[in-house]
Amino acid sequence: MTTEVRSTSRLDSVLKRLRPIFENIAAGAVRREQDHTLPHAEVRQLVDAGFAALRVPTEYGGAGLSIPELAEVLVELAAADSNLPQIFRGHIAFVEDRLTAPVGHDRDRWLRRFAAGEIVGNAWSEVGQGALGVSQTTLDHNASGWTVNGRKFYTTGSIYADWIDVTARRSDGIDGTALVRASQPGVVVSDDWDGFGQQLTGTGTTTFTQATVDGENVFAFADRFRYQTALYQLVLLAVHAGIARAAERDTARDVHNRQRVYSHGSASLVREDPQIQAIVGEISSVAFVAHATVQRVADAIQRAYETSAQRGSADDDAANIAAEIASAQGQVVLSTLVPEATTRVFDTLGASAVSRAKGLDRHWRNARTVASHNPWIYKAKIVGDWTINQTPPPFIWEIGVRAPLTDASVSTQGAPQ
């Protein structure tokens, strides 16, 4: 049973504080993309207004939002500029990891850092010919302490961050994570992401050369909160919902203001043309479905959060499976619906819609780029296997080069006859 997000005093308070910033962010979105101006100032405005601590409990200085309430804020921000929620994706996940950590000094220290405006970037993925499931980044310990060495790509948000959440292989073979101070000389973050969409997320290369790490900021990867993949995906679903809302907004505005008509159209004004109205209705309907999907997935993840203190219990297992399946179902649907809706924008306005000055193409480019994360085709298979066979979904996966199969390693067990 889904719970609709209704207006609450804490959510109202957050949105009242943030909406003027969202309006300012939206006003400059096209120009920033055209000039490739990274939104450092906009990120700082959000952080100064408490954005980094939306999930942090009020007793630590945060807003204390639930996951469904957080999702509402993310959709509104994405409608202003879809780059911004994705910039905070790694931060949102690490906040959640600390929220679900054992109560104590380590947890408290991080929650207070978030409330003070410190933010976290992400450095998990690697490119190149590394073996599947084996990190090429190392986390070593000696008499001087811990150091990280390696090269990461897709390090979304790290160019804006105070800390970087790095995955690495320890010398004892254990997969770990380390929170590295971004400002130290051993860390270099490059804005070399060349994707055609989400161009301002800072999704580029980060290099670590003898980067130092305090021992208290080294964690075992196996201890991470269980619903992290679903939460990461929820942020992207919220980005999709915001893009759909922005496409609806921009299309309705431009259609309403358009004066030129085609002689073979169906009305004397474009805004009165039933064919155009139907297309805008399609776009609006996708925006509606995208928002509803975000709400449903956020509800499922909230339940996983609520069972996190009973990690590994039957209730916790069920909640985490439900959250992972819900996020995958949402991804399968929105990865096709939203890019399609953002192409329909151009069916309403004719050739003038492709003007670079208008920047309407960014909606499709951004939606298509978001849809390329964690390819949805594999998620469709996972959902199908769960639906048919009740096979639990994988919660973590890797990317890399798989070792070639040898004759000795090939098994015919279960192969079709």
UniProtKB/TrEMBL annotation:
Main location per the UniProt record: cytoplasm
Start and end residues of each Acyl-CoA dehydrogenase C-terminal domain: 236-374
Keyword Chaperone in annotation: no
Protein name: Dibenzothiophene monooxygenase
Ranges of residues in domain Acyl-CoA dehydrogenase/oxidase N-terminal: 24-118
Keywords associated with the record: Flavoprotein, FMN, Monooxygenase, Nucleotide-binding, Oxidoreductase
Organism, as annotated: Mycetocola zhadangensis
Biological-process GO terms, alphabetical: L-leucine catabolic process
